[in-house]
Request: fold
Amino acid sequence: MIQEKICSSVSLSTVKNFLHKLGYKCLKCGSLPAKADPDTQRKFYEETEKPLMEMAKKGEVVLCYCDASHFVLGNTHLGRIWCRVRRFMSTFTGRERYNVLGALNFVTKKMTTVTNNSYITSTQVLELLDKLVHQYVGIPIYLFLDNAKYQRCKLVQEYAKAVGVNLVFLPPYSPNLNLIERFWKLVKKELGSAYFSNFPDFSKNIDLLCSRTHTDLKAEMDTLIGEKVQLFDGMNLKSPNSFEQPRKVA
Reply:
């Protein structure tokens, strides 16, 4: 495109240096669900999420982020390691799936989980609510959740009200507001640099990571889980297809 406009050949390195001087960086594109509403997310964060964060830090409430993640033994989440030559990991055998429904305490970073190797349903959500109620006695519990049907169903909402857990549903298509998503990313990163020959070892390592969030992993969790969330209002949300593409030379 540049060559066509200035009628002169320019090397790729020259273009890169020129863009760097102008303050441009070659950044990986981020993703945002197409149906997300940045304005709604901003309003939810300022009017609901941030005030609850402040109350939780003062000890007035317990604030937890809830979500389910599904880890497949046969799936590879390759991580990065420091090495002289590229390292190849043995691929996993089988397609067994380990499901983890977790609630992450915003302040202490303690994870409360319900796990299985079948499916996450409303039954597991009720079990998680019971665990939270017994774990945090005498203090109001607020639980942020997405809009999955097994979490928003009438059974779960009525049971939560009966046991005194306040369910706070995030705006649709807003995984960026659910801070537990950052922990799932950390787990997948850890799994990507190790080989597991069997499903029990695979699931045991996931359980171990979940149990360490408030102990030896807390320093790292404190950097991941804080008051800052990613909001998209005011950002450039255009598709790369909106930019002018170079024409084919006849």
